[in-house]
Design brief:
The protein is mainly β and 449 residues long. Helices cover 4% and strands 52% of the residues. The strands form 2 sheets. It has an 18-stranded antiparallel β-barrel.
Length: 449
């Protein structure tokens, strides 16, 4: 089944208008082919082709960028049934779908924006990505754009991040910069369907039904209609970032975002009685204020990095039925990182993530303090044509984690081939341990044109 929307027509008309003036166009693209094999299931998890084309049209002070994406997957295991917990605004819902509700791919207008500079300010208006923060593997401040979790966090953030329609204004003050964001596009995370490989089963994120002595659910669980943010103006997000570069070499930012949380609060209610008893879950998107900042400085072979984010309202799964299974707390998330480049052709990065809940109740399923360690090692060989990458993420609370290994060979300036493995470990109750049966090996290439 295939659908089409008017946004493609708007993009085409805009390109035609610019072409009527004295303009210059550049066209480029990339084709990525990847196969992933689930080692526990002994079957293909995906056989995916992604072709992205980028058209840049420059006319005077105006520049238009349009990025289209064709994604095709012979398997339908990763993309089915993810609409229950995620919201897609009418602004963002424009594509041709391939298969049953897009489970075999889609053709989409991934990004589409105008750039213009005047009166000492730089404007970018349209569908785009905005990246805040500097952390690797896990996120603290990078919350402007939602993300697709159909492959958990295994997909590159640039690919899994969901572009939003927004106005992005930057104003320079000597060495400082003020960024102002207005985001009327209220689209949220794309979460995996319940029958897909990376469906969320962790009890800290998804409420679980009570079970009997045999481990069978005592009551069925049903989902009521989501409470979505649909008002164009009243439900818009607003963001501010002030960037400073000091004479001593410190890069610092101060960030603020008033936004809807991209994960819904899953309120629970027991209804009926006797054999008709069931648990109803009501996904509801809630507002929060995010205050944060970053700092970094290069000191010889070392780079020191820090990032923090204070969220006024985080909604957490609870065993307390009197509050419909959801408790609210303020949360402080931080990351401290050290990068080292003192060895020839090698890059090493160590990060320590912490999360603290200020209004903690014993009925909350997760711990009051949550900590993760990450280690990234990159080593180049053969005049930087061969790269070995390894990323380790370990949760100190549940002793679970993820190991990612990758080998990349640059055959030419336009073509690279790669192979890799993603290995989960730990108990089911951990964020990473819930996927310990989803280890996979991947093989692919990227071709630029």
């Amino acid at each position: 089944m295939m659908r089409t929307y008017k946004t493609f027509e708007v993009a085409f008309i805009a390109i035609l208008i610019l072409n009527t003036h004295d303009s210059h166009a550049e066209i480029s693209g990339i084709w990525e082919q990847e196969a992933s094999y689930g080692t526990s299931q002994n079957s293909l998890q995906k056989l995916e082709s992604i072709i992205e084309g980028e058209w840049t049209e420059t006319a005077g002070r105006f520049e238009l960028t349009a990025i289209t994406r064709i994604r095709l997957d012979t398997e339908s295991k990763l993309n089915a049934g993810g609409e229950v917990l995620g919201y897609e605004s009418r602004l963002n819902d424009q594509r041709f779908e391939v298969g049953n509700d897009g489970d075999h791919g889609e053709v989409s207008l991934r990004e589409f924006y105008f750039d213009v500079e005047f009166w000492g300010s730089y404007w970018r208006v349209g569908k785009q990505q905005v990246v805040w923060g500097q952390s690797d593997g896990l996120k603290v401040l990078d919350q402007v754009n939602p993300q697709s979790f159909s492959e958990f966090i295994l997909d590159d953030f640039d690919d899994s991040r969901i572009p939003l329609w927004m106005v992005n204004l930057e104003v320079a003050f000597k060495d400082d910069t003020l960024q102002i964001l207005w985001i009327p596009d209220a689209s949220t995370h794309v979460l995996p369907g319940f029958e897909t490989p990376y469906a969320l089963t962790n009890s800290e994120l998804v409420p679980t039904a009570p079970v009997d002595a045999n481990g069978q659910d005592l009551f069925p669980v049903t989902f009521r209609k989501r409470q979505d943010p649909k008002r164009f103006l009243a439900d818009s997000d607003v963001g501010l970032r002030y960037s400073i570069f000091t004479e001593s070499g410190w890069d610092m930012t101060f960030n603020y975002l008033y936004h809807y949380k991209d994960l819904p609060a899953l309120y629970q209610q027991v209804v009926g009685s006797g054999v008709d008893t069931r648990i109803e879950i009501m996904p509801t998107f809630k507002r929060s204020h995010l205050l944060g900042g970053t700092l970094s400085n290069a000191l010889g072979d070392f780079t020191l990095r820090g990032e923090w984010g204070y969220s006024t309202d985080t909604y957490l799964v609870s065993s307390n039925v009197n509050v419909q299974g959801i408790e609210k707390s303020a949360e402080l998330s931080t990351v401290f990182g050290v990068d080292y480049q003192g060895l020839s052709d090698m890059f090493i990065s160590l990060q320590w993530f912490q999360s603290h809940l200020f209004d903690y109740e014993k009925t909350i399923i997760r711990d009051q303090n949550n900590q993760n360690l990450t280690l990234l090692v990159q080593h180049d060989f053969m005049n930087e044509t061969l790269r070995l990458e390894s990323l380790f993420i370990h949760n100190l609370n549940h002793k679970d984690g993820l190991t990612r290994l990758k080998i990349i060979y640059q055959l030419s300036s336009d073509l690279e081939v790669y192979t890799g493995a993603d290995i989960f470990y730990g108990k089911q109750k951990g964020l990473f341990g819930q996927f310990k049966q989803q280890d996979r090996m991947s093989l692919g290439f990227k071709l630029g044109f």
